[in-house]
Each structure stands twice: as structure tokens, then as C-alpha cells.
Amino acid sequence: MDTDIQDLLNGLSDFVDAVVVPLENGNAHLFDHGRNFYAPNGAYSEPVRKLLREVRERSAEAGYYTMFAPQDIGGGGLGPMALYEVWRHLHARYGPGRILPYASVAHWSYAPSVLCSYLTPTAKERMLPAYLAGTTTSCFGMSEPDAGTDAWAMTTTARRTDEGWVINGTKQWITNAPEADWVFVWAVTDDELRRARKGGISCFLVPTSAPGFAVDSVIKLFGQAGGHEGIISFTDVHVPEDALVGELHKGFPLAMAGVSTGRLYNAARCVGMAMWALDRAAAYAAERSTFGRPIAQYQGVSFQIADCAVEIYAGDAMSRDCAARLEAGEPAHTEVAMAKVFTTEMCSRVYERCMQVHGGMGLTNEMRLYDGWHTARIVRIADGSAEILRRNIAKATIGGHRP
Length: 403
Prior knowledge:
Keywords: FAD, Flavoprotein, Oxidoreductase. This is Medium-chain specific acyl-CoA dehydrogenase, mitochondrial. The chain is of the alpha+beta class. Helix content is 48%, strand content 15%. The chain has 13 helices and 10 strands. It has helices at residues 3-26, 28-31, 34-37, 46-62, 80-94, 121-132, 191-195, 252-257, 259-287, 299-327, 333-357, 369-379, 386-398; strands at residues 138-141, 157-161, 164-175, 182-188, 201-207, 213-219, 229-240, 244-245, 289-290, 293-294. Strand 9 and strand 10 (293-294) form a beta hairpin. Helix 1 runs parallel beside helix 5 and helix 11 (333-357) packs across helix 13 (386-398). The protein is globular.
């Protein structure tokens, strides 16, 4: 590993251990009980939101929060290799079922990202100071109830007026929507171009305080009391002309620009989470005895651990190769799709095995293995489901593409 990246990981770990973990431990009552963690509407409770904001702001002061944001807006401008290493490291070190450690680094879909480079000068003045400081966050308003995988099917519209634009429509599965201060929303600005799939979709920056914007509901998953995704709507939401992000009718490429980054992030997260689970399963198998012998000596257990190690190594190697290609500026959409499919499914298999190795303990809340299984199951669908990615991989392969 590059020594600069290793130094970065060491510094980030020191920050999280010294600043974030004490905050987490001192507020365990919030994180251990759903009624305290979530507000009645299903969003994060106000104390949790304050802690997240504190972590973001303190990380920004320490220089870690915006390490992946573009340099032209004041970020660190670090590339795909560092991105993969950082997220893999964080998830391998701190594991699932926690949120504060991961607030230390700006997430591409609701914190400073490449989208900020395309803001107008006046929009940058309004948004960026608090955004880069971690005080405010955003959300990525692309998916709709009837336009998920096929984004060209979106029906949200932006109509030009003498003073700017009026936006109407509904978005669904929007991460961080319940907490966001801003939303990057994609809307149809030329329906003829959209139907031809040649453009006609534009991106706009909208404050969530704008009249007509609403979080209609918080989406709750796996029986939890709340969630981090929401359904949002725009009812005659007026924005000025300078709210346009990038070029008119050319917003779709902006959304796609972050696809490889998002999938590489998910691969890193899954490899890291799988490493965390394997470490605990291996340690448990070595110390837990039945019939006078450590369970690690039974093939039914040891082979499950071996399978985990083999698959994690494969997923890590695939993902590092993708990161290196992206770092070099090479096109790697198909390879990143392959890595996303493999690592997310691998992570689910690892958690199934590690829960089984732990026996009944693997089902308990205190082991946090369920949290990892839960996250891995979601990621197999989020940011491109395995089915649509396999479709794309097959199409490229039949067309002659080889890794």
C-alpha cells in the first residue's frame, strides 16, 4: 500500500478513536434503542442528528471530511485508490451497526462531491461554506416510484418561468432525504429529447426549506422503527435560474458520473464489513469448544471460515484492480459492475456463514452480525441491482468486451 495512503488511514483511525468513539460510547442509550435513535416520524432523532453534525464538523476541521471532494471547491481531491482504501479500512475496523464513524468522511451521495464543481458561482456562495464544513448535508434526487433502474422514465418536470424554474414531481428511495438541507434533483426540461433518450433531463439545486418541498414519508426497512431513505415531493417549487447545475438538458451524465464511484464505495464497504465478520468468526471458532474440542477443529466450521477467506480475497483483488483502472483514467464501467455484483453477494454469504459459526450468539444484537447481514442485503439492490448489472455485463461481454 502507498505510504501516503497508509499515513492517511492511520490518521483517520486516530481521529475516529479519539473523537468519534467516545461520542458513541457516551451516547449508547441513543444507538442501542430504536425509540431513542428514531423520531416519531421515522427520521433520525434530533440528538442523533446533532451528534452526526458534530462528527462531520470536527472531521472537517481535522481535514478528513472533504478528502474526496474536488480540489476546485476546496476539497482534497483524492482519487479512487484512496477512496477504496479508506472505506474498506473504516468498515473493517469499526464494523456494522454504527453510524458515527462513517460520518467522518463525506459520502458521495449526500455530502461534497463532484456535483459541486458544476454549481453556478452564486449557488456555490449560498451552499458551499456550510456544506464543506459539515454543517449541512444534501440528498441525491434521481429515483422515482416508476423510474428506478430506468431513469429515462422519470416524470418530475422543471418548467421555465420569467424568474427561473418551477419543479413538480415525486422522488423515492432518496438516501438522507429526512435530514438533508439541500437536494440535487433531476427533472425533465425537454420531454421530446427525454423520450428519444438523447437528453432533456437537467439537474437543479433546491433547498429543502423551499415552499412546496416535502418529505412525504420515511421508508422503514426490515421492521425497523425508522430509516435513512425517504419519499420526497415537489409541488410548484420555485427556484432561480442559477439553481441549474451544469448544462441545460445535460443533467443525466452528471448523475452517471458518480456511478463508478458509488459502486466502488459499495465494494469497499462490503469487503471491509466481510473482513470484520471473518475476524470475529475465526476468533470465536478458536475459543468456543464443544465435546472437548474448539469448534475450529470441526470441518463443518473450518471450511466455512476458509470459504469466507477465499471470497474476501477475490473481492478485494477485483476491487483494487477497478480502483487502479479508474485512478489511471481508464474506462472500467463493466469491471466496476462485476466487482459490485461479486462483493455485495459475497458479503451476504460471509455474514450467513459467520452467523452460523457463532450459533445462537450469531443471532443476538450484541454481536452486530445481523446489522452486517442487513446492510449487505440492502446493498445488493442499491446503486444498481445485481440483475441489471448482470444484464449490462452480459451485453458488454457478448459485444466483445474482456476485462
